Task: structure prediction
Amino acid sequence: MNDYNHLPVMVNEIISFLLQKKDGSYIDLTAGLGGHLSAFSKELSKDAKLFGTDRDSAAIKKAQDKLADCPQQVQIAEAPYSTIDKILPQFSVSSFDGVLLDLGLSSLQIDDRSRGFSFKDDGPLDMRFDPQLSGRTAADLLNESSEKELADIFFTYGEERQARKIAKAIVMERQKSVMETTTQLKEIVNSVIFPPYQNKSLARIFQSIRISLNGELEELKAVLPKLVPLLSQAGRIAVLSYHSLEDRIVKRFFQQMKKGCICPPEFAVCVCGIEPSFKIITKKALTPSSEEIAVNPRSRSAKLRVAEKI
Ligand SMILES: C[S@@+](CC[C@H](N)C(=O)[O-])C[C@H]1O[C@@H](n2cnc3c(N)ncnc32)[C@H](O)[C@@H]1O
Result:
């Protein structure tokens, strides 16, 4: 893939909400191809510090290349973002003025057919974010899970209404041949879902397998509370999500941090003593402009939420 195919999503909005200090410390926990970090670099003074994490070693390499000429200090670490508290000692700071989470897949991953993320190309059913590590592939998941487990994955993580029908078709088909390729999966889905619904179902099925395999929602739920103590005073967190399951987790987390108190509603006075720790900056999730969607159709499902530590 050429770098110019990769356009960082809602980059202007993120710059204006996140970069409150020209010489601050900023991290993209989903560094990907370094698109956002590179745009941050152009806005910040040379005393600013830029950091990144990503689970995908191919992405780390791309991000490092892209950021090689930045005037600021840049450090990128290969790690799942939920381990940010453990890897922080590798970085030359103890807190951040801004944290970005740009969830989901990069165009590098979608466009590389050998990764098996897209139903538009034939490839192996892999779908791991960190293929260098051993671990279950999408093929393992599809070959080993029971019909009920598959249906639950498709329904829970893909919100696919025909989950049971598709799971049944997979289990019947895999008795004849082992599940190995994206084309095989596509053909099975298309055998039970009819036009014009096929592409939507395929997108939901591929998404659900990827989310389940990589524990994406668990990662998100684990990282959000860890970020609160890592933000500087008035530091901001921006999260770009691409489907409602992720957005719901972010929205609820921000609301809870704004509220603080976790006492049951029937308590007349607060006994937990937990103070609010966030101010919500984006009352409603922001979405890309029609101009951005026209130039970068992959941005169309993005939702941006920003909060500030108080
Ligand atoms: C949408 S891309 C980010 C693009 C990036 N902001 C840019 O401008 O180039 C999402 C990235 O997050 C990474 N990722 C997904 N889950 C992750 C996790 N749990 N920990 C670290 N990185 C993760 C993916 O490997 C992918 O490179």
User: Anything to note?
Assistant: The chain has a mean pLDDT of 95.
